[in-house]
Task: inverse folding
């Protein structure tokens, strides 16, 4: 999972095997590179049934950076980069420009509000996002908390919402993502700073805050392992993607517990991100890839994928079929005012280097 | 000599899996990829080890007992912390492991052949993957885990066993104890009974027999046990990863993160080289000590 070179070799080998197999049979195989557990279990099988000429072979990755590295050496037909990675790939000329007329479901169903979001500091890049990529699912970053231990935040001011994460009262019971952007983002958000700042003085403040937190509150750092700890009540609060919160609710339900045990709060100015479907320039079957992307934009498919992954769907038609408590939760489906206050991550070498240096030294403390 | 070609596969093995990777690590440690894609010589990797933030040295008792606060670079502190926990774990393994090996060897001497059930029970956990065994500790020691549930049921306060020195130390002692016991055991079972009898005949009491005969004879086993525990304990990243709650960083974790997450191969390789040199030096020290025990070595 964390060995891109070996992964690439294995993938190349598998691709070679699959290609030699495909040479003997009629259907075209398209290669789909997706996040783990990010598509409903029967979506691909149903698609293949509906389109007998196309087979889909899916591989998974666990970070945008891993996706970026693998793209260099392997050809995929459909990938799922997050917004900032789409912008980076556009800037580097690594995306194929699809024929949007072949993906009619995108314009028909997907939330047009997303097009207004500045996904890149450069408006020229931001305006091209939707020429190259189609929104798949989106998600916000907020506070997950145990309603029994932590009072609901007094307001949606960042300092109020994130307060439990820095409160020694919850020593050993706080969860932080071992992910530099989310964790540094929390500190920046509390300080009222931009989540994309590269100002050394501002970043130093965020770093000091996180080091003090590590000493005083002693959070648990992780990603997937945190979910079970919120469900079991081991952790009182933490930073979480809304998708993880929804998955925790599912787990509570499975365990026969009350879903009201966990709450989720969205502070002003926090991050939200959109994962896009895109076709890399080195794709071998872009025409078939467009058919697949269009299929994923069908309301019933998008609904199933959204419910499976726990992430929000940008598909307005699909949203109508969601359970009321999900659809009306402003943390999962933010209203216009909330969307306007949220900030997307930008990516550049400078940001990557500075944030990575800070995060590694926080973790080594 | 005629069978010399039999060694070629091992030479190939060593070259491919030991020499070449080591050279690669050394190469990465002294080079950095430039923006244009080429590699250039640099000492930045080693510089960033000592650059970093200055933090108070986290050496056992230094602050508590002596009230001293020594500022050191961040990574040096991690290194000292790793060394300290590796040494303590090795010591604990020795203290628990030697008596165990001694008892097992005594039973073996009395049984004369056959498989010892006790020895078998000692080895059986090693048939399981270390990952699984360590995960089991997680289930036991979690804040809401089995041990704490039992403690709470009998009215005792819950303890924080994981994500701290105790949890990591326990994980190390549990995982590495067999590496201490088995070498000592295999040396002890080979100790010639007649030497012990001779000592007894010459009037040595049991304590003297042990301290003057058995213990010196078993030193090579102790030394190889110490080596086999200290080295993985110094370099592990699995145990702190699993039992450290993501917040407990030893030198192995720092190197892993630099390679895998920060993708700073130069610093990661430089750290690896420093660690490697250190481990080699301590091994050299151990083997020299072992040679000093020629009296025992000859008989074995």
Result:
């Amino acid at each position: 999972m964390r060995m891109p070179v070996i992964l690439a070799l294995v993938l190349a080998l598998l691709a070679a095997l699959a290609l030699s197999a495909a040479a003997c049979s009629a259907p075209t195989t398209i290669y789909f590179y997706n996040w783990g557990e990010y598509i409903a279990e029967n979506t691909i099988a149903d698609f293949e049934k509906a389109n007998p000429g196309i087979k889909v072979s899916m591989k998974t990755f666990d970070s945008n950076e891993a996706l970026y590295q693998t793209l260099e050496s392997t050809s995929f037909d459909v990938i799922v980069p997050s917004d900032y990675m789409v912008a980076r790939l556009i800037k580097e000329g690594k995306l194929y420009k699809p024929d949007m007329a072949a993906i009619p479901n995108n314009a028909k169903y997907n939330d047009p509000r997303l097009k207004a979001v500045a996904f890149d500091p450069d408006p020229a890049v931001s305006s091209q996002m939707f020429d190259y990529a189609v929104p798949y699912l989106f998600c916000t970053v907020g506070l997950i908390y145990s309603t029994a231990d932590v009072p609901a935040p007094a307001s949606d001011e960042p300092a109020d919402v994130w307060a439990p994460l820095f409160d020694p009262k919850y020593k050993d019971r706080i969860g932080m993502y071992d992910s530099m952007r989310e964790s540094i983002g929390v500190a920046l958000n509390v300080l009222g700073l931009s989540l994309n700042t590269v100002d050394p003085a501002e970043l130093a403040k965020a770093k000091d805050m996180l080091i003090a937190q590590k000493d005083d509150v002693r959070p648990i750092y992780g990603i997937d392992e945190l979910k079970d700890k919120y469900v079991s009540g081991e952790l009182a609060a933490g930073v979480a993607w809304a998708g993880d919160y929804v998955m925790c609710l599912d787990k509570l339900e499975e365990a026969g517990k009350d879903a009201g045990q966990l709450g989720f709060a969205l502070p002003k100015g926090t991050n939200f991100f959109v994962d896009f479907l895109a076709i890399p320039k080195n794709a071998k079957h872009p025409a078939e890839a467009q058919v697949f992307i269009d299929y994923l934009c069908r309301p019933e498919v998008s609904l199933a994928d959204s419910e499976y992954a726990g992430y929000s769907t940008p598909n307005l038609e699909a949203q109508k079929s969601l359970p009321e408590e999900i659809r009306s939760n402003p943390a999962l489906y933010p209203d216009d005012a909330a969307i306007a206050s949220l900030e997307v991550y930008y990516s550049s070498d400078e940001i990557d280097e500075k944030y990575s240096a800070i995060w590694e030294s926080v973790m080594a403390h | 000599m005629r069978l010399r070609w039999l060694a070629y596969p091992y030479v190939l093995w060593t070259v491919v899996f030991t020499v070449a990777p080591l050279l690669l690590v050394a190469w990465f440690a002294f080079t950095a990829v430039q923006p244009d894609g080429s590699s250039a010589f640099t000492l930045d990797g080693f510089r960033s080890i000592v650059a970093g933030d200055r933090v108070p040295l986290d050496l056992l008792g230094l602050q508590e007992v002596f009230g001293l606060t020594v500022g050191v670079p961040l990574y040096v502190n991690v290194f000292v912390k790793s060394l300290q926990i590796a040494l303590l774990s090795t010591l604990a393994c020795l203290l628990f492991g030697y008596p165990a090996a001694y008892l097992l060897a005594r039973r073996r001497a009395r049984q004369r052949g056959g498989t010892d059930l006790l020895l078998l029970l000692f080895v059986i956990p090693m048939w399981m993957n270390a990952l699984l065994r360590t995960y089991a500790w997680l289930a036991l020691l979690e804040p809401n885990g089995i041990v704490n549930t039992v403690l709470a049921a009998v009215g005792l306060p819950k303890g924080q066993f994981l994500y701290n020195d105790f949890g990591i130390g326990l994980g190390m002692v549990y995982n590495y104890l067999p590496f201490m016991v088995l070498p000592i055991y295999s040396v002890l079972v080979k100790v010639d009974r007649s030497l012990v009898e001779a000592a007894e005949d010459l009037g040595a009491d049991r304590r003297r027999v042990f301290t003057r005969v058995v213990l010196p004879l078993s030193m090579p086993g102790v030394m190889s046990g110490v080596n086999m525990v200290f080295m993985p304990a110094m370099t592990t990243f699995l145990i702190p990863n699993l039992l450290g709650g993501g917040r407990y960083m030893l030198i192995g974790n720092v190197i892993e993160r630099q390679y895998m997450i920060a993708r700073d191969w130069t610093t990661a390789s430089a750290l690896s080289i420093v660690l490697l040199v250190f481990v080699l030096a301590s091994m050299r020290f151990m083997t020299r000590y072992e040679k000093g025990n020629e009296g025992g070595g000859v008989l074995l």
